[in-house]
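Deliverable D2.4 — example input (structure tokens):
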């Protein structure tokens, strides 16, 4: 800066230039911050993407979109309509799998960003983004359809839980399967099983133990009625240069209608992955593990032998106590337990309050499981079973 430049900046042209630079700088800062946050979802590919806050929040994780795209491609889909493509996370994953994508997005800014993201990823030849109403798209042009309806109210951004308030609307989404024999719909993991269309496969997906979404695979894409898919991003390879990555995945399938047997508490407890629980596949897992429930309404399994499984965390039960703070505190004192991990199903207790009330001290660690056994509030004191044993 010198005196001449200061004089120029004080002219009307100078202040207009300053205001414009300020707007660009603010927009660039927002993009930089969103890209930093998006790295958790998209890895290195995030660095070249244009993002909005709601678009990023609603976007499918790269690893989940990549696996869905691979399954579509393996089912023979070479042209796909992405009906309500958002920022394009699923569209880009499909294109990376070699699928020609026709993406439709109602919001003009989001549509422009999706097109820019396809270009930045070097996929512009495989992705066409049209700004418009997905319900008017001519699906006779494509072999497959994907719809990830917005589950937030436009304007307020508030979440909607009733599928009839999704956009595009639920009737359109479920009716798609009748028009395109290979249709996939992404839905909230809390989806009511009663809403699953007849003949569709409902899949629940978790990533590193966190439930992230459910999807309905319709028509020719449907396998069995229910599937739990567990992806292990932390175990997986790093991103490759194109931003796609493959990570280990584990699948459990079944009818979702079986009931596991009920028996006593046994030596080992299995805490099933949330995808298994939400897919109603606990009974199938029980059969695989030779395990039983201790309460018909609580999804913990108990077995005499610890078998390695990706579908549940296994703990060895050292003590079974009817719930009593005094007794539990005394037992943990005696064992010099200073650290506890608390998990619960079927208990109204608040883990953090319990942790404070226990006033722990000592160098040992334990796992506490708050649950019910045959209807009675019970605490199980446990220790982890080493992986593979
Ligand atoms: C959940 S987001 C899609 C996210 C996308 N699958 C991804 O991973 O990036 C749903 C999108 O559908 C758009 N949308 C809602 N109703 C639409 C309609 N009738 N036609 C086209 N787009 C629509 C919304 O603007 C929103 O961007």
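Example output (designed residues):
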């Amino acid at each position: 800066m010198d005196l001449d430049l200061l004089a120029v900046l004080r002219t009307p042209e100078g202040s207009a230039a300053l205001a414009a630079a300020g707007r660009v700088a603010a927009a660039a800062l927002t993009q930089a911050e969103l890209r930093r946050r998006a790295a958790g979802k998209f890895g290195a590919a995030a660095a070249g993407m244009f993002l909005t806050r709601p678009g990023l929040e609603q976007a499918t994780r790269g690893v989940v979109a990549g696996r869905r795209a691979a399954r579509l491609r393996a089912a023979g889909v070479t042209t796909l309509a992405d009906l309500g493509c958002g920022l394009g996370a699923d569209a880009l994953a499909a294109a990376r799998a070699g699928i020609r994508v026709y993406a439709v997005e109602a919001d003009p800014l989001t549509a422009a960003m999706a097109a820019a993201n396809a270009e930045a990823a070097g996929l512009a030849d495989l992705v066409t983004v049209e700004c418009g109403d997905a319900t008017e798209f001519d699906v006779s042009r494509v072999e497959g359809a994907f719809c990830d309806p917005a589950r937030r109210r436009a304007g307020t951004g508030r979440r909607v839980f009733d599928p009839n308030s999704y956009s595009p609307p639920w009737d359109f989404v479920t009716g798609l399967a009748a028009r395109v024999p290979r249709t996939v719909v992404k839905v909230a993991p809390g989806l009511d099983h009663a809403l699953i269309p007849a003949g569709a496969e409902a899949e629940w997906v978790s990533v590193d133990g966190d439930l992230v979404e459910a999807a309905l695979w319709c028509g020719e894409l449907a396998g069995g009625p229910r599937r739990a898919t567990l992806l292990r991003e932390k175990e997986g390879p790093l991103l490759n240069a194109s931003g796609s990555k493959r990570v280990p995945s584990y699948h459990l399938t079944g009818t979702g209608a079986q009931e596991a047997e009920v028996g006593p508490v046994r030596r080992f407890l299995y805490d099933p992955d949330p995808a298994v629980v939400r897919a109603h596949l606990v009974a199938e897992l029980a059969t695989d593990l030779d395990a039983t429930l201790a309460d018909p309404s609580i999804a913990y399994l108990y077995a005499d032998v610890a078998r390695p499984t990706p579908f549940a965390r296994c703990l060895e039960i050292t003590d079974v106590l009817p719930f009593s703070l005094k007794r539990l505190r005394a037992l943990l004192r005696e064992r010099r337990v200073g650290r506890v991990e608390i998990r619960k199903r079927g208990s109204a207790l608040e883990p953090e309050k319990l942790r404070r009330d226990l006033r722990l001290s000592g160098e040992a660690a334990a796992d506490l499981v708050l649950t019910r056994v045959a209807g009675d509030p019970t605490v199980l004191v446990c220790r982890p079973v080493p992986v593979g044993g």
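Residues 58-60, 84-90, 104-107, 110, 133-135, 148, 150, 167-168 surround S-adenosylmethionine (CB under 6 Å).
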